């Protein structure tokens, strides 16, 4: 998921205070259990940053996260968790559990990177490994931060200050097939009382705007080959079909709601120029704020595929590969997160870190306002594009989701700036802040049954009548050959 | 029709001799009847040029040729022809007849101009009437030249030197609905023994390459209007459908034979920007060397219309408006024309006329080789794009067709250069040359029954098993309101 | 302007109460002056509805509103206003004034219709005049409602209960060149203390979301003609350029903010198919929430025009024709409007009117929830697409703007449903409600200097440093020839 | 090269006699040396077919033809030729020489396959190796047939019946970079007196229509990545540029001569949908009947690349990779080939082979007329699309080129039917026929100095003033890593 914000409505005045000194952590306001949770994160701080840096350097893409997954699972084992690896037929998924009985609180971690955006931890674009992958969505921080919170809670359970179960979910392939969806289908979340997750972002907030529903599909065209110079009239070009499809899709942009996003890449469109191509293939994602919106656009695109095939004299086939449900926002849960974030105060970025961020902002052509340190009020949030497989989970378990600054305000996401910041102190500070917020919030869930009950009641009310049905096809996940 | 030639295969060497002095008219080789026919044309030369200039100045477009048609019909009446006007429900069509009995030889004349290409008789582009029509296909010459030949034959019949009937057909709207097709449907050519026609061109030749079959149709799209800013997602844009259709058509160009031509204009595509357009309309012509070729492409375009409608969520309708059959070449007839052209020798353009032509060639970016004066051998002809409603007639009556230089070699047709030359001596010389060729050739048809029989046998052989069925819809021609 | 709302975020629960009985007019809460103002509107109710129906039947499009303008001006004259017609070189613009001295309060009226959407006052689509224009934006109601409010205030000034000046502005061509912009350039609003305006809509609210900035421009392509069959390779198709431009524009949709709207119609794209078109012309509007957004997109489209011309081997020219500034929202003003709307209570639609509305909703495929009767809280408003030349005025004078239900919720705007409702009781009730709200609000502006001062202070604060510069070209408005 | 013919002008009557029994080989007309040459081919027949089958089964694509090249080179060595491998920096190129002194006669052989069209030697489409390559242009026959002719001449030199040098050129990668061009640049053809080559085809003829000039280039687009859902407005899509480029190219098809061919494949267009692609890559070929034609289109496409980049806000780069010159026809040489083909008589296909061919024709939807056995007159040849790197050689050495039937008439080339026939007796008979024709013709070149001189004079006359300059970039050929 990305929370890369584009709060275009934000007044300039507000921006000017983004990096103003905040009120500071009000540690005195933390109750003793929270203090202990926060202290536990601090105790493991160096380990967590090392874990994050390790995964950052691995930069393994979806379903290839063998070393990243192993690093986190080994750390959990070393901390005393019971670890089950390879769950849900996913070699790089695992569940790490500690404690017994209810409440059972889950926390999510991700660790997959994105291809082609390798970058050094510096404010100038330069790949660490030419053509390599990079953590352009900050999942190295996500995984390490979440496990840090889990470890803090584990220690409180171990010391008897909390009762129940803490469970860390190592969830692979968020950027691709959505590991969580397979894990959900396998029933791995069925006994949870609540789930927590965070995501690297360009501002700190308890999220109430949700994420987009998404459907991921392939459009294939089959035509008839011919010699492109000698008898092109005998050919039926699959690429013609594909190009008409994209033209139709781009025209459709005028006729969808502003919350819709459609994007595609062309995966196959001819082998050699002198043959009229008989095969073409396009990979497409459609998103909207909710599934009905996605379904309506998908139906239009099915018509567009059929129409473009008819135009080119070829055949078209649409194959659904997967997708995400939109995130079901839990407002009581968000308010609880917000409270704990407020207690922790502003993010403590230094002047040097702000300069680093501004250099990136300058390089990428956005306003040079640096890093957002101060918690954003829930009321100021606006809709942003982005999807996550956390969405599916949110329809099965009450889910609390927050964002934490790990990158410069408005710098491009899924791009080198996020990789750069995720490999140095800016990302590390976000990681620690997230771990503390999550740990502190979990202490409330363990110790305040009324709060947990309110969160669960909200969940039941919002999800009533909806039966979760994942977008993924039947059968095991599409694990690539080793 | 255009015979605007693009003889790309022609060697440069050949081009360099285009304007070389030819062998000159071998008048001595003409038999006495032919000499008389040619002399008759010369006698009427000034009148014919005056008629041509009159029609050139009128520049009346298809089905609006009231004054042009009247001028020709009045001239025929004055010359002693029996004239029947308004035939085949076409107010600007007429038949002028003289003589009785067989052979009945027809000769075609056209006189419609093209919109928007008004031009003065000068080698620099400048409209005579801003935004006005112009004779960019030389039909002023065509009509006057043909009637000149008819008058010559009439005088030979009147003087008893020829026996039979000469019939001049005033045929409107060649550039649009094809007046000849309605005249054919009305049976006006059913008793003819042979038909002759010529066309202004950039070189003189007896045509053996035919013309293209053509289908003329409308594609209309109907969608759903909506406010383009407030709720474009509720609209289904007919213009989207239209744009996808043209994209599909342009892609189809790769997959048709090189003899195919497809061209279109957009007639309606929205009224005001703030409404998603619910109507759009495109006018399209498809041509190929023969009707089966045209039909195959038309079928593809029907699919493209249906597919584009499906893509845009709108409805499409294809309506055939008309079309031409390809010209059925009569090779014995062509050889007869060629013989007579050879007898007449080179076209007598002056150095000044050549300079005029070269100035146009310079202005239009083609090789400055001037005017082609020498008869082109039948063997050197190559396929050229272009259609004519003479094509339909050629499947009903043996038809002899020639081209005569009236414009600079390779200058753009349906454009100002042709208008310019058609209003001055270059066009006039072509007119006279055509009239003489046609008159001379007709004397053969009247006096050499074996030659006529050979032409008719060829016709029967080539057209065997084919039943002419015009592209025009049932009902009267679409005469515009006065 | 349209306020046709698409409040997609609105919960279903809220929709179900849209037509619930409201609290009713709390007339008792009105102070005596307001009571008199509201009563005055009621006194003129039948005249105002008659005026509206007259303009509805005229259905005159932009700058053609001679009879509509005359009807309103004559009514103002009859009511005792001093009327100045033909202001700002606009034959159909006028200013009607009454009273002297400050405060000078303006009120806007519009009366132009939209082409091609003629419709009877019935819930089934059927044109009143085939191909005719229709009031698809409800400007017949807008003009008559506003003048009703002005007359009410005039009577209070006349009776000495208010002091100052009331000024009604008859503003033509909102749907086209933007009459108000020419009037603003002529300085006609320079001495005003505040301006009021309303707009027909599908819900009642005091608007705080503004309108979109807009730029209106022409893109023309010039190529080289050629015979489309004989030598298309010598042609450079202006239509190719145009089609590439639209393709580029449609691709750009992915890369603009969700607040952007771009829409176009094709005005010229070839005359006859057999000529490669040398001219093509497109009319385009670009909108965004503010001018910088519009300017950024315009720059991209200039590049797209230049690029498409380069691709097609033709020339492109972009000519700005006009445009609107975004509406500068005056929140204190909006709150004042909201207060007065709250005093007036729900809109009193009958069960039959609700059925009429639902029939339209069924026919147009939107939720059959009928008409919105209850005032929408300011907080629930969301961004909607749409522009108005009121926007320009709002940067010169503090402007208060409200919306009133005159059409079914979510029915398509600029389309037959709005025409239908504007010609019957639904529209009439909206008209009267708007007139009352405006009259009541104006009494506050006349009688409560502090309120007016607060509104003016807000205006100065928001517009500080911005110099209004209209999009229209220099010179007089483009009045069509009579 | 392909000679896949589409002789659209061919009369139906002619087609009906395609498979009629021909006059048979007039062996008696062969002089003794020719008889010996033909007999030598027959002697090696089984070896040549085995060689062909071996290469057919290897099906190695361009620059990968290690085993194919080795098989031919080893065979040449075994026959007594001096073989030089890896010439011109091409690991799979070689020259096999025998004899000394002038005349030095070259003969060309090819052996590269095409990807993705693996096929069994049967008349039903079924891959031999799923996804594998196949000899869809018959180069297995080409290589083996040519070496057969070389061996026959070698034996005549060895036996003293001919004097001079025979040289077989093993030329790789005809379907890709054009191995011959690198060999030409390396000067390997500089001392030749004449060159011979043949090509598998669907009819036998001595070619006089030449081949198309071709330019092979890459268009790359570079944009700016962004998250496709969160901030697509910050992205500049390289794929947008690419799609506009192809749209422009497809529009350009209307405005090029009918002899032009343009075709492309898309090699890169995005990696994952959620990133706006910053790179895109297209591989394009442009052909025309000659280089000036190709250059003119290339210039348009450079503009189209620049324009599409401007439209999409990205950068475009065009990189020439290579290309072919058109084949310079040597008419005296063609007449010599024709004479020898006439002496050999019709191709001896059996009824079963004709049925095999007709089954393929049925499966591929072309007229079921079987295989063409009878020599086509030079006069009946028409222009066909296709290019070959033999073209470059033809501007350096007088080149004689013939086609021989190895596949069903009008069956699709570069497709499974050609693979199928090339692996069974149809192809083998063509191979033997070609070898005999080449051998017989070479005896004339060795023994009739006047004939050779005439061919050389024609060459000098046609190529005068033209300096060969290959399309390939400087530097060594792009050999793929092993």
Question: How would you characterize this protein structure?
Answer:
4 copies of one chain form a homotetramer. With 482 residues, chain A is of the alpha/beta class. Chain A has helices at 12-16, 32-58, 66-78, 139-158, 179-185, 238-252, 291-312, 331-344, 351-363, 390-394, 416-422, 425-447, 449-463; strands at residues 82-85, 94-99, 104-109, 165-170, 194-201, 205-206, 213-222, 261-269, 279-288, 315-324, 399-405. In chain A, the strands form 2 sheets. A 7-stranded mixed beta sheet of chain A has the order 1-2-4-3-5-11-6. A 4-stranded antiparallel beta sheet of chain A has the order 8-9-7-10. In chain A, β1 (82-85) and β2 form a beta hairpin. In chain A, α4 (139-158) runs parallel beside α12 and α6 packs antiparallel against α7 (291-312). Chain A is globular, with a radius of gyration of 23 Å. Chain A starts with 11 loop residues before the first helix and ends in a 19-residue tail after the last helix. Residues 1-25 of chain A have low confidence and may be disordered. Chains in contact: A-B, A-C, A-D, B-C, B-D, C-D. The interface between A and C is medium-sized, with 13 and 13 residues.
């Amino acid at each position: 998921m990305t929370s890369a914000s584009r709060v275009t409505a934000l007044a300039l005045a507000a921006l000017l205070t983004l990096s103003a000194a905040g009120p500071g952590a009000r540690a005195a306001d933390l109750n003793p259990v929270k203090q202990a949770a926060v202290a536990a994160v601090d105790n493991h701080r160096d380990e967590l940053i090392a874990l994050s840096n390790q995964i950052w350097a691995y930069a393994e893409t979806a379903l290839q996260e063998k070393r990243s997954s192993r690093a986190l699972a080994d750390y959990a084992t070393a901390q005393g968790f019971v670890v089950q690896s390879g769950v849900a037929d996913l070699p790089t998924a695992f569940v790490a559990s500690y404690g017994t009985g209810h409440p059972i609180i889950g926390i999510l971690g991700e660790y997959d990177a994105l291809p082609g955006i390798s970058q050094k931890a510096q404010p100038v674009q330069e790949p660490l490994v030419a053509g390599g992958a990079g953590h352009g969505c900050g999942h190295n921080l996500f995984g390490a931060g979440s496990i840090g919170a889990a470890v803090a809670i584990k220690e409180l359970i171990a010391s008897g200050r909390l009762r129940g179960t803490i469970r860390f979910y190592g969830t692979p392939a968020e950027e691709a097939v959505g590991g969580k969806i397979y894990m959900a289908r396998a029933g791995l979340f069925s006994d949870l009382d609540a789930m927590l997750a965070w995501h690297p972002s360009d501002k700190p907030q308890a999220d109430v705007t949700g994420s987009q529903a998404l459907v991921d599909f392939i459009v294939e065209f089959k035509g008839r080959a011919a010699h492109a110079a000698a008898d092109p009239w005998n050919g039926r070009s699959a690429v013609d079909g594909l190009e008409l499809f994209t033209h139709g899709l781009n025209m459709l942009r005028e006729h969808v709601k502003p919350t819709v996003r459609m994007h595609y890449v062309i995966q196959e469109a001819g082998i050699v120029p002198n043959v009229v191509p008989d095969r073409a293939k396009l990979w497409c994602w459609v998103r909207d704020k909710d599934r009905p919106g996605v379904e309506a656009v998908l139906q239009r695109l099915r018509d567009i595929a059929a129409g473009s095939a008819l135009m080119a004299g070829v055949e078209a086939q649409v194959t659904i590969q997967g997708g995400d449900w939109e995130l079901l926002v839990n407002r009581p849960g968000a308010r609880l997160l917000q409270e704990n974030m407020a207690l922790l105060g502003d993010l403590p970025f230094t002047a040097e870190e702000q300069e680093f961020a501004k250099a990136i902002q300058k390089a990428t052509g956005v306003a040079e306002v640096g890093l957002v340190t101060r918690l954003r009020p829930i009321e100021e949030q606006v809709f942003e594009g982005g999807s996550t497989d956390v969405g599916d989970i949110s329809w099965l378990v009450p889910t609390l989701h927050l964002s934490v600054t790990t990158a410069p305000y408005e710098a491009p996401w899924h791009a080198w700036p996020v990789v750069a910041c995720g490999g140095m102190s800016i990302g590390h500070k976000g990681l620690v802040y997230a771990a503390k917020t999550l740990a502190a919030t979990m202490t409330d869930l363990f110790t305040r049954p009324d709060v947990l009950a309110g969160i669960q009641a909200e969940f039941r009310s919002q999800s009533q009548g909806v039966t979760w049905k994942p977008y993924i096809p039947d059968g095991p996940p599409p694990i690539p050959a080793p």
